[in-house]
Structures are given as C-alpha cells and as structure tokens.
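Model: Ready when you are.
Researcher: Fold this.
Model:
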Amino acid sequence: MHIRRGTQEDIPAIINLLRLSLGESLIPKSEALWNWKHVENPFGPSPILVAEDGGQLIGIRAFLKWEYIYQGKAISACRAVDTAVHPDFQGKGIFTSLTLQLIEEVKSEGIELIFNTPNTKSTPGYLKMGWEKWGNLPIQLHWNWASLFSKNQDAFDSDWDSIPPLIEKLESRPSESSSIKTNLLPGYIFWRYRDCPLFDYKFVTDQEKYLLIYRVKDNSWGRELRICDCFYLENLDLGKVRKDLKSIQKKSGATWVSASGLHLEESLKLKLAPNLPIGPLVTLRPINKDLIPKSLPWAWSLGDLELF
C-alpha cells in the first residue's frame, strides 16, 4: 500500500470511492460538493491523503481547514471530515493509518487542533487515536404551537445580492468576543451559506446591524426553523431581532425553532428556552501541546457543526 497526498486529478476517483464505500446516504457525493468544500474554502485547500494498492485508489482521508478567533488571536484548526476505504480493503487499519499520518502532516503546517462530530459507530475509533469528548452541543428549542393549526405558509426567498455591504462590514470587524468563534475571513459568509450546494439557507436582516442565517427543515417533529448563525455589529436593537425572528417563524409555518445554546445566548442574549444537551457530539484532538481545547470557552453555532 502506498500513501500520498491527494491531488486535483484524484477527485473523480475519490468521488467514486466515497459512493462505493458510503453510498449517497444523507449527503449526495459530487465533484461540485467536493470542490466547494475542499478547494474553494476561504480557510484554504484541504489537506488530503489517499491510499493506493496496485494503482487502485483504496482509501481517502480529508481534513477541512478551519480557523477560530479567540482574544484577538487566530487558532488554526481542521475538521476531520470525508473518509472512506474500499469495501475489499476494510478492516486492515487503512483508516487509522491515513488519519494518524495526516495528523502529523498538518501538525508540521501549524494546525493546532482537530475537531469533528462523529457518529456513535466512529467515535470509539477516534477516541483510540487521541480525540477527547467535549460533549453534546447544548440546543435551545422554542415551540410554536399555533403553527399546528395554521395552514398558511408563505413561500419566500432571500436576496443574497442585497447584503454585500453589510457582509463586508461584518467580515472586516475585529472580533471582540470573549468566547471562541469562527474567524470571519473575507468571503466566509457567502462561501459557507450562499454557495453551499446542499442546503437552501435563508436570512433575515435589518441591512445595517445584523444578519441571522437559518434554514427550514421538515422532520418527524414537524417543521424546524434552524438558526444556523447570527452575525452582528455594535449597538444592535435586540427587540428588532426578536420581532424579525418571530415574523419569519410565522411565515415559514415552523412548528419549532432550534439554535445553539452557546452561540445566541453568548452573543445576542436571545434565550429561547433552557439548554438541552441534545446537539451533535463534539470531539477534539489537540495537536499544539500548549493548547487545551476542552477547557476553552467555545461558542459554536449550529452552522459551525452541521454536517456538510
């Protein structure tokens, strides 16, 4: 078996391997999605390792580059994402070999930590490789019982072309948060939400002070309005935000609203309900020996940790 860095020329074979190993599942595999995630990412192209046997691609491991900001200092990170092993070669330690080798490579490139949200099947393997459980993301829920009796659900769209001036202000403003948040590099908001090929993200804004990004999702509990992110400037009118949020909840016909208990409560004080530990399990893998990520004041949004 030969392990090497993945290249642009490998992408078609990588997509085929992902489909063969994982199926389409909840997230369809495509070159467009791969390029959006691993090539166009404003934090930089993803470090990728592939394993070959006799010229055949049999394994893939990718880390998505990310960057956080804390007390004015950027923290370089990666999110452990796409991985697959050919069915004929599973159970031979290829996943572990690829993951551990890629950790060493990104360490030499200045990456300080790796995070991810593994499922119950993959969590034990990550723990054996040095990952630590941070815990489940706390979630705030707010139920809109009136929607159960309402048949009026307006269709509405968000005009992303109307907000570049606000986004420019948001992405150029120095972070003053006392918690760790995603670093808003220029181009991040459009890349993460407008250009995402998987979900139809919408927003509500006053065009001047804040941008609240959400998506509507139908599931077994009813229609969910998921608050994915909220970016804002100083002197924000919280009453206006609450009023706008109530309006889009009504228009969407959402049965319930969900949001990260760390993100909105930390920033906007838009407390919807008591925090419940029902969000995705977050695991962390420290690389910088001087960094203890479990003890840091994280303020993840749901958009930070969604699977994509």
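Researcher: Now this one.
Model:
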Amino acid sequence: MTAAPARAPKRRLGVIGSFVWDVIHGRDVRSAPVEEWGGITYALSACDAALPDDWELVPIVKVGSDLAPQARQFLRTLRHLAPDAHPVEVPYRNNRVELRYHSDERRSEVLSGGVPGWTWAGLQPLLRNIDALYINLISGFELDLETAQLVRQHFKGPIYCDLHSLTLALEPNGLRTWRQIPEVEAWCACFDVLQVNEDEVAMLAPDPLALAAKALSHGVRTLFVTMGKRGVVYFEDAGAGRPLRTALVPAAVARVDGPGDPTGCGDVWGATYFSRAVAGDTLEVAMRRAVEAAARNVEHRGASGLAHHLRGELHAP
C-alpha cells in the first residue's frame, strides 16, 4: 500500500495587538451603552474570515487576568486559530475603552487598564515559525520604537502595521488626545506596509503625499490612508526607478437600515487586505476584498460572531 503524501505544514500569520473591552455610547441613540469585545478582536475576526485553509492564525497578545477566560473563549470561536496559540495572561487589569460617538466617524476615547507592552526578550520566542506579521497598535503601547526595530531586524517575513493609537497621547484621566510622532522615518523603516487614517496623517506629515514620500523612501512598500466613507488611497513603490503608483479605491456601500456600526472598520479593512495579500492576491484584488469586508462590518454589531458574518454565514449568538 502506498503511503499518503505528507501534508505540508500550514503557514502562520502572527497578529500583535491588544484585547480591549469596549463601552460604546451614541452608536444607537435609542439604546443604552453597549459593552462588548473590541480592540484586536476585529482584526482577528477579519483574518479568520479572509485566510485560506493553508494558513493558521497566531495571536501574539497579552490579556489582563480579569478578562483572560473571556479572551480565551473568544479565540476558540476562530476557525483558523493555530492549535498552539493562546493569549499571554498578565497580572493587571485588562484594557478597557469608553467610546462616545459624536458622528459616524468622530468619537472620543477614554482608556483604563494596565496591560504592558512587549519587550524584545518576551516577543522574540513568539515570532519563531511565523511567516507573516500583522501589527495593530491598538493601545499605542504594544511596541516601543526600539522593540519595533528589533522585530524588523530579526523577522524576515512581511510586516504590516496599522499605526492606530500610536498617534494618541494618554491624559491623566485616560482621555486619548492627538500627539505628534517624533522619529517618523525610524518607525516607517520597521514595516513593509503601513496603514493610517486621515487624522493620523496629520500627526506624521503635512499631507498624505508628504507622508508617502517619507515612508516609501525609508522602506515602506505600500502606504494606505483610510478615509471612512470616501474609501482608501494607496501609494505604492513601483520600483526600478518607476513613478509612484497611487489611486483612490472607493468604499463599498453597506446594506443596512440606519447608520450601521463603524466601529472596527479600519481594523477589518487592513486585516482582510493583508490576509489576502499573503495568500497571493494582487494588490487590486486584496483591496477589493478589504473594501467589501469593511462594508460588511458596518452591518454587524461588535466582534462577537463577526468572522461568521464576514464569511456570509448564519451564526447563532
């Protein structure tokens, strides 16, 4: 009898970010505040929905001991979760964010909790056997610049980063406020693909084109600037002395009655794009998939069951 051929090992997508428990005000004027998982759970759900079956998902995340059981329960809902993946429990109160929406795209944010960021010594062993790395600076404190530089130096696969809350300071009362980012060029040199939104651009450069020039001259291959309902602008280094490629990709229209829920759309967009890009999609195809996923996210409340929703599946709560 001929032995069956050995099955090729699955490739592994590492995801760095933070679990956050959200309390959301103003998302629906008819209801009381909503409490649910936020933070990296949106990106994890999007990766889970977008990855093909020959990839598996490796969350590289810390969680406070007060919410560790709930975080493990959430991860168990992910179809592509690697068998050896688990959150690192730390003896601190988990991060919590109070969000107050003033419009679909404008909100204030107050952070509490104390989950610490990664040191290189703690992170290095977790990056072994990782083929691609998605980083979302949900709190802004997951990595400092020195640690990000060491990741770039030692990790040889592609690295995607959503700068997210790196551009937010933390006031004594927990309110997040905008701050200018020093050493922008050094941060850019740590990543192959960089994602920011319009407000974040202003903390990094005078305008998106100036940021693109700065980022692409320091190692970033593709810069994405998300613009909410207007879509996404991308800037790509075409290489070999060819001119910069840039285009606006319009947002898809969500099929939902009322305003929908914009929470997590940027996270879903970036995680979907990178998952499809590492799976082999062209930039244009991966972006189209990301735009569609972000629109579907608007139709869903929260991250619970989101991966099922993004795949178009029915899911009992």
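Researcher: Key takeaway?
Model: The chain has one domain: 11-303.
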